[in-house]
Amino acid sequence: xxxxxxxxxxxxxxxxxxxxxxxxxxxxxxxxxxxxxxxxxxxxxxxxxxxxxxxxxxxxxxxxxxxxxxxxxxxxxxxxxxxxxxxxxxxxxxxxxxxxxxxxxxxxxxxxxxxxxxxxxxx
Length: 123
Prior knowledge:
Elements: E1 3-12, H1 15-24, E2 28-33, E3 43-48, E4 54-59, E5 67-74, H2 77-86, E6 90-91, E7 97-98, E8 102-108, E9 114-120
Parallel strand pairs: 1-4, 5-9
Antiparallel strand pairs: 1-5, 2-3, 3-4, 6-8, 7-8, 8-9
C-alpha cells in the first residue's frame, strides 16, 4: 500500500468561515466535490497554499462542533483498512462511501484520533 496524499481535513457546519480563514492564511480553493455520501448538503472543498500544503474543508450541516481528522489517500483501500484495523482502528458505522471517483471511510483509533481513508478510483 502506498500513501498518495496526507493532510488535515476539517468537518464543519459553517465551512465558508473556515474556508475564509484558510484563504487569509494563503490557501486557495482548488476544487469542490459535491454530494458526499449521496447527500447534496455535504460537500468537500480542497485548498492548497504556495508551499504545496493542502487542507480539505467538508461541509456537514449536522455537526455541532468542527471536527479535525487526517485525510489519507492510498492506492489500495482494502489493504490500508486492514492495516488500520490490525492496529485497533474501527470503521465508521456508516460503512464505506463510494461514488464515481472515490471510495472512503472514517477510521477511528482506540486513543481518539481518526483518518478519513480514501482511494481515488481510476477509470
